[in-house]
Amino acid sequence: MKQSLIKEEKGDIKEIFRRIKKRDFSGNIGLAIKNSLYQFSTSIVAKIGSLIFTIILARLLMPELFGLYSLALSTILIFGAFSELGVNSTLVRYVSKFLGKNNNKKAKEYVIYLGKLKIVLIFISAFLLLITSRFISEVYYQKPLFLALVAGVFYILFINLMSLFSSILQASNYFRGVFYQEIIFQIARVILVPLAVIYALKISLSNEIILFYVIIGLSVSYLFSSLYLSIIIKKKSLFLKADNSGLSLKNRKEVNHFLIPISIIVLSGVFFGNIDKIMLGRFVGAEFIGYYTAAFGLIGALVSLAGFGGIVLLPIFSRMKRKSLERAVKRSLKIVFLLCLILFGLTVLVSGFAVRIIYGQEYLLSTNVLRLLSALLLIIPITGIYIAYFMSKNNPKIIAKLLITSTIINITLNYFLITSLLKFGDFYAVIGACVATLISQGIYLAGLFYYSKKGDIGD
User: What pLDDT, on a 0 to 100 scale, did the predictor assign at position 47?
Assistant: First the structure.
């Protein structure tokens, strides 16, 4: 029985590579393979573009301004999370389901209902950011972020518009458009934002106005992407021309019930990823947030490199039967862990050299932060595989529960360690934030591992 499962698994993988080689994307399997390739390509473009953009911006702004930018963006992202609340994922799930049944009318009804919900959430999030921006910048942070947070209103509007259009194209099984949109966005922000910064520095504008220009530049980049997607949607999402009589009360209740666990995952994930900077912003100088962000940027790029194996294989594994899925996930864990171990060792060895070459002499204080955070290379890629495993088994509630627990632990540890170590200096407070991040990420991974064992993953 075991040998037959292994044989079947190898046969599936060979068939996938055969189709890729011959560019045979016919049928449902071919469509799934093509979409996975476009998703993978989009991820590569996004990660490479993000790294290039971060390096350019860090070098232009220098540690203090770069830290202020990172703090402003993290704050905007937290407010922006309330405008998402799982709407995009829900749209893709339900719209693609009814498009698969050739029920264009029903698919459009879900787009209209979720689109209206999205618009309401966008305006609530943007309004809350607008009315609290002065308090956040002047009372909580005590840093010149007011205008950047005001510009964040446009950021929230345009990034959510883009994500909504992307979700409609994904539901329409047109991932090529999302891939091209990512290219447009990355090129736009790598050009527009540095030009805005150079101009602002040349005419000696204040730090607050420079940050305003940066966020506006990012917002315009998202606007360009949204305009491109709107054109593609008119050509590819023809189901939107169908009649619309409105979603029934029963369907609305079903959608709202599905949104709850997804919303928890989205909110917890955004808080989990940004709360360290939010809390550091209250207690330390902006330049130390810059050192922390610079180190985290490199770790993020390396994590993406280590996690690409899982990104490629898991969409394939998710179509396998239970035992084959568990065996394949177990194998991918071994492969990714080995790659993570190699990257971890290299990062510890060349941290100083890497920081000096990539960011410049001004960021040398990021070196020890980078060495400490390099432990995340042994955690985050493995976590990503376990998340994909639970999602493939349609069990997001476990992820939501663990994310909430880990986020609470993260907030508690950040506050305790930052405030306790602050008496030794701002840099030690940053080290405290690093330790809090490592512990909470480790607890999250341990929880995923525990529940995977309860589900009898592996042999």
Answer: 84
pLDDT in tens, 112-165: 888 889 999 999 999 999 999 999 999 999 999 999 999 999 999 999 999 999
Evaluate whether 300 touches 430 at the Cβ level (below 8 Å). Answer: no
Structure tokens at 223: 């606007």
d(CA 134, CA 131): 7
Per-10-residue mean pLDDT, the chain, length 459: 47 53 53 68 84 92 94 93 83 81 83 89 94 95 95 94 88 83 93 93 89 95 93 82 76 82 80 87 93 90 64 47 64 78 89 90 92 90 79 71 88 93 93 94 90 61
- pLDDT tens track for 152-202: 999 999 999 999 998 888 888 778 888 899 999 999 999 999 999 999 988
3 state SS for the chain: CHHHHHHHHHHHHHHHHHHHHHCCCCHHHHHHHHHHHHHHHHHHHHHHHHHHHHHHHHHHHHHHHHHHHHHHHHHHHHHHHCCCCCHHHHHHHHHHHHHHCCCHHHHHHHHHHHHHHHHHHHHHHHHHHHHHHHHHHHHHHCCCCHHHHHHHHHHHHHHHHHHHHHHHHHHCCCHHHHHHHHHHHHHHHHHHHHHHHHHHHHCCCCHHHHHHHHHHHHHHHHHHHHHHHHHHHHHHCHHHHCCCCCCCHHHHHHHHHHHHHHHHHHHHHHHHHHHHHHHHHHHCCHHHHHHHHHHHHHHHHHHHHHHHHHHHHHHHHCCCCHHHHHHHHHHHHHHHHHHHHHHHHHHHHHHHHHHHHHCCHHHCCHHHHHHHHHHHHHCHHHHHHHHHHHHHCCCHHHHHHHHHHHHHHHHHHHHHHHHHHHHHCHHHHHHHHHHHHHHHHHHHHHHHHHHHHHCCCCC
Q: Indicate the pTM of the whole model.
A: 0.85
Domain extent listing, the chain: 27-247, 261-459
Task: Provide φ and ψ at 351, rounded to 5°.
Answer: -55, -50
